[in-house]
Every structure is written in structure tokens, then in C-alpha cells.
Amino acid sequence: MKKNYRAELVGVFGDPVDDNPTGVLEEAGFAALGLNYRYITMKVTPEDFDIAMKSLKALHMKGMNLTMPHKIAVLPYLDEMSEAAKIIGAVNTIVIRDGKLVGDNTDGKGFVQALRMEQVSLKDKRITLLGAGGAAKAIAVECALAGAASVTVINRNQSHGEELVQTILEHTEAKAAYLPWDRTQPVPTGTDILINATPIGFAPNVTAKPDIDYDTITPNMTVSDVVFNPDITEFLKAAAVRGAKTVSGLGMLVCQGALNFTIWTGREAPYDVMYQALKKEFNLGAGNM
Ligand code: NDP
Predict the structure, then answer these.
(1) Is 62 a catalytic residue?
(2) What angle is formed at CA 232 by the lines to CA 234 and CA 277, rounded to 5 degrees?
(3) For labelling alongside 90, which of 69, 76, 102, 233 has CA 20 to 30 A away?
């Protein structure tokens, strides 16, 4: 058999990017399936983004992840985009197919998939979302496309919150409303799924949690966090104490990585292997999920 010493290349462009752990789970997946792929974590500044994007085809790369600050800057370079990515207005995953750059956004899809894995359906659910940034937008759009009845956006900056509401109303069937976040916010009555889509609680600020009235969380709610380090945040702990079902941001991260894996390789991702690799990386014990 003819030898092939050339690996298929994928990776991520970002700045800062040194602490992005996606390579750990993707490389674990490639190794588990014996695929000759490499995931390379690359620092690319906004000034060098153009030359970095132009190198993708020259280097015969299979695809790329984009993280801050490139998720919007990448749009003019794409030949095609998924419908969801068009609505979200941001792309975190590219695959290069027949010389064309095709963009998708797997942030929100990963979130929806993580809920599904915990047997939580979005159909007809009333969502309350804390935050209106990139992750919040991707999650809100995918939840709405997956059949959520409504999305209530609670955000500090009013115009960010109202813009997200507008996006949901214009592009999906879901209802949407904005609530200001200028006090200890009660969770709106009737909420089925409460999501923290802010970075509050991310390491090293592990004792922080969003300023909401935790006594308004009820046992029939599902409560989820985008923060993945630690995987069980103070936010999720406070929800669990009130009897809510909790879904961690680690699941979203791995589901998103698994979706990217399949987009690039065409193979089903070894979810458990990827999940365990990340848990090991973060030194999370068996009782942490
Ligand atoms: P952005 O900067 O785009 O948005 C941050 C949002 O959080 C904004 O709405 C901002 O409000 C709000 N916010 C930030 N700090 C505070 C605060 N102290 N009090 C109230 N609101 C606050 O970030 P992203 O959306 O890209 O990322 C958010 C988090 O999601 C990050 O921690 C990121 O690591 C995580 N993430 C996790 C993923 C996963 O797979 N688990 C995937 C993608 C992201 P305002 O508009 O008022 O400024």
C-alpha cells in the first residue's frame, strides 16, 4: 500500500486562543478512529486574518474553526453558508469542499444536541436566556429553529438584548421579548429552560454566579450553562438545590466539537472518548457530571 505521510489539517484561528481546549477533544476523536488528521490551535491577529484565510486553500486544509474575534470577519471569505449561520450572522466552522469554503455555526447546534442527550426537547418550550452575545445569539436561534415557543432575553446592555429579540422575531416562528437586567432578576414565571449565556462563573471566577433570584427556579425547569470550566458552576449548583434538571456547558462544547468532527471527516464522532479527554484535561472527577 502506498504510504501517505501528509495529514489532513484542521484547526482554529483566534486571538486570544492559547486556552482554547477544542484541540484536545478533536485529537482524541481522530486517534480513537485512527484518522490521519491534525487539529492545530493557531494565534491569528485581526491584521493577519486576511493572509491566514488565504492560506487555507494553499495548505490544502480540510476545514477550520473560528473563534474570537474572527467569527464575523470570516463571512466575506465564504462561498456558502448554512441557513442558521446566515441568521446568526457568525460562523465558527468552515469545511473546504471542492475548493469552496462552506461556513456553519455549531455553537447553538451543540447546545441543542447537549439538551437532546439529556432527553430535553425544545419543542414548544419557553426559554429564558441570560446574555445576548455571540453564544446567546447562536443558542437563541437554534432553540427557536428547533421549535421553542418563546425566548425571553435578559441582558445588561439594552440594545444588544433588543437586537437579539429582533433577530428571533424576524427569522423564526418563536415569540421573543427583552427584559432589562438592572436588579436581582426573578426568573419569568412559566420558564421551561433557563440558560446562562454569559461568561459569569468561568474559571478563575468560579464563585461568581448570575444575579438572579434563585428562589424563583422551580423543579420543573431545566437549567443550563455555557460556562464549561468548571463544568458544575455555582449557577448550576444553585439550580440543582431547587430541584431543577441541570445541563453543563461541557456537554455543549463536546457536542459542538463532535458536529465539527463529522463535518470535516464524514464520520460519526466518538462522543464518549472526546468527552472523557476533556474531563481529564480539566481534572474533573467521575462525580462531576
Ligand atoms: P460575548 O462577549 O459575545 O457576550 C457576553 C454576554 O454576556 C453579553 O451579553 C454580556 O452583556 C454578558 N455579560 C458579560 N459579563 C456580564 C456581567 N458581569 N453581568 C451581566 N452580563 C454580562 O461572549 P460569548 O457569547 O462569545 O461567550 C459567552 C460565554 O460562552 C463565554 O464564557 C464562552 O466561553 C462561552 N461559550 C461556551 C461554549 C460552549 O461550547 N460551552 C461555546 C461558545 C461560548 P452585555 O451585552 O451587557 O455586554
Answers:
(1) no
(2) 155
(3) 233
